[in-house]
Amino acid sequence: MSQIAGRLANRICLLLQGKHSPLFNHNTDRGDTVVVVNAEKIKLTGKKMQYKLYRHHTLYPGGLKEIPAWRLMEKDPTAILTKAVSGMLPKNKMRRQRMTRLHVYAGPNHPHVGQFQSLVVKRLSEDGKTSTVIAQSSTEPYVTAAAPLQSPSHLISSHLMFVVC
Prior knowledge:
By secondary structure, the chain is of the alpha/beta class. The chain contains five helices and eight strands; from the N terminus they run H-E-H-E-E-H-H-H-E-E-E-E-E. The longest helix is centred in the N-terminal third of the chain and has 13 residues, at about 5-15. The termini are close together.
């Protein structure tokens, strides 16, 4: 099963900003680290995969470059989700710091395997309701999990969120 890029990016933005935490404050960065795997299964609604254009400028005269979404998906499957999350974050000084805590991988393999030992896994259903289960492996679709990281202070709430597309 694949998830829609914009809806997934919205949930990831809330986790990166820390808005789900009771310690949320606009001027402090208390968000979580988010790991996304199977990014090649992301889909866009409607005909956006054929007609949506991603643009950037080379800073030379006449240097506006356009690449369609289908070609960007072939070239780098993680770029669509990364650009969607970056576009949804607030445009301020903390945006770059928050984006460093986002790790997107095209396939199921990632280097963060050791940080997921015993997890409480929440399976996301199509209608948005969640049911909590304990899972041995986190390779099934629609899975998100949180595991506390080793933090020097108990006052800082940093977690590693794991999202499978």
